[in-house]
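Homework help board

Subject: predicted structure for assignment chain

Our instructor gave us this sequence and asked us to write out the predicted structure in token form, then describe one feature. I got the tokens but I'm not sure how to describe them. Can anyone check?
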Amino acid sequence: MIAAVAAAAAAFNLVCAGNTIFGADWKHKTAFEITLRVDLQSGRWCSHACKETQRIYGLSATQIVFEAEDSSGSGTLNMVNRESGAYIFRIREDMGKVPIISQIGVCRRAPFSGFPRQQF
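My token output:
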């Protein structure tokens, strides 16, 4: 019974909402909402239609890092603070100098809606 409760606590959805900011002048904003499905025990996550899962990049007492920028600062950063719920998704190119798009918001925990069924 305790193991089942612990497993259930490790699997949850995060419903994150905030603003998408883009453009060189950072003046363009639109609201966003995204649901992330997370299973800390298996180290997997997915978003949107959740057709396939990905490996969680990093996990600590204070952060879940879904995706991380490379050492040059380019690529995608996707993470949530486990204490405050603060969420950031950012895509950078050109050696990390200019973010192409950023989503900044707050996540709240929701019941786990599951992962896609494995085919084999």
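Reply (TA_rk): Your tokens look well-formed. For the description, you could write something like this. Residues 1-6 have pLDDT under 50 and may be disordered. That's the kind of observation they're looking for.
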